[in-house]
Amino acid sequence: RKLGEVVSKTLECEPRRWKIVEHVREKFACRDCDGVTEPPAPSHPIPRGFAGPSLLSMILVGKFADHQPLNRQSAAFAREGVEIDTSTLADWIGACVAALDPVLAKLRRHVLAAERLHVDDTTVPVLAKTKTRTGRLWTYVRDDRPFGGADPPAAFYDYSPSRHGEHPRRVLADWSGVMQADAFSGYKALYAEDRKPAPIVEAACWAHGRREVFDLAKLTKAPIAIEIVRRIDELFAIERDINGKPPDERRTARQDCSKPLVVALETYMREQYERLSPKNAVAKAIRYMLVRWASFTRFLDDGRICLSNNAAERALRGVALGRRNWTFAGSDEGGRRAAAVYSLITTCKLNDVDPRAWLANLLATLPDHPLTRIDELTPWAW
After folding, report:
1. Residue 309, SS3?
2. Which of 338, 335, 317 is CA-nearest to residue 132?
3. pTM of the model
4. Nearest residue to 139 via CA among 113, 166, 117
5. What percent of the chain has pLDDT over 70?
6. Prior bond to 146 cis, omega within 30?
7. What confidence tens digit (pLDDT) does each residue in 7-22 have?
8. Where are the beta strands (DSSP E) in the chain?
9. 234 burial type by CB count under 10 A (0-12 exposed, 13-18 middle, 19+ buried)
10. Helices 332-350 and 310-326 sit at what angle, rounded to 10 degrees?
11. What is d(CA 298, CA 341) in angstroms, rounded to the nearest whole number?
């Protein structure tokens, strides 16, 4: 008689399968009118293109989410018996970006409709004649989850060939609200009182201010730096407890708990700054915060503002990892394409959506989808 059974498990992976999908369309001739009829050809993600939506999404996610440059993807395809040249893969990415432009436009409008934005930038090497030059990828992140907002999070990227203030001014030309960013001098024109349609309100990042002091506390064991870091960490501990609560509750908690700590911190830093030499590294770190103290303390009176700009820095983390692998953008146009795809992939991640599955569905659906219903194809609605 059977006593039972013992089950052993083995995790296995089957190689991916390549296939050619053939659409057969029959032609018919009419004997009465000598006319010839034929069903219309199915829509393709790329007009007159050969690649299917799943293959295109795999290439896009492979480069911009998994950080696999196109030459490595081409080599991997060749090992599986499919020869696709690197230049062909690059052309397909460009065609996909053009096809996805309606969704990108919707994504940009959604981000710029926010009352508060996280803004940051990072370098991108761009191929030139003799050597690479340095371009910039800017990210504009809308994330209302810290204060319990109902609108979905999203990120929009923009490429520029240089780090000049005109580039964020161009993107934010018609926008006003609260902007959380670092102390980049190019943002100053956005905060001007005579700016149209209205001045942007600056909210400084406590993580940036803490980072300067933390490095000194870690490397030199400076007692003043260690004390400042300890006091700032108390503010972050309060923020962790109120994360996700409505703005009114966050403001009340900050007024009751955070404000006394901030007042005490300011008094302590001003006292220590008077005792230090202006050339002292700790004094420079303290001055960085005291000069911008109004923007650092703005979070106390507005429950929507976050204590740090980490949302933007997290959005740029994938770019920092990717450029170590694909090394450089081939041109300014390549930088703009990268910004477009990063916008889509990062927004998927913010909404807990698989970017590969969403892009495959989007590329298959978009050619026949009405532009008036483009909202149905966004990551948060899929």
Report:
1. coil
2. 335
3. 0.92
4. 117
5. 100
6. no
7. 999 999 988 899 999 9
8. 28-29, 36-37, 116-126, 133-142, 154-160, 178-181, 201-204
9. middle
10. 130
11. 34
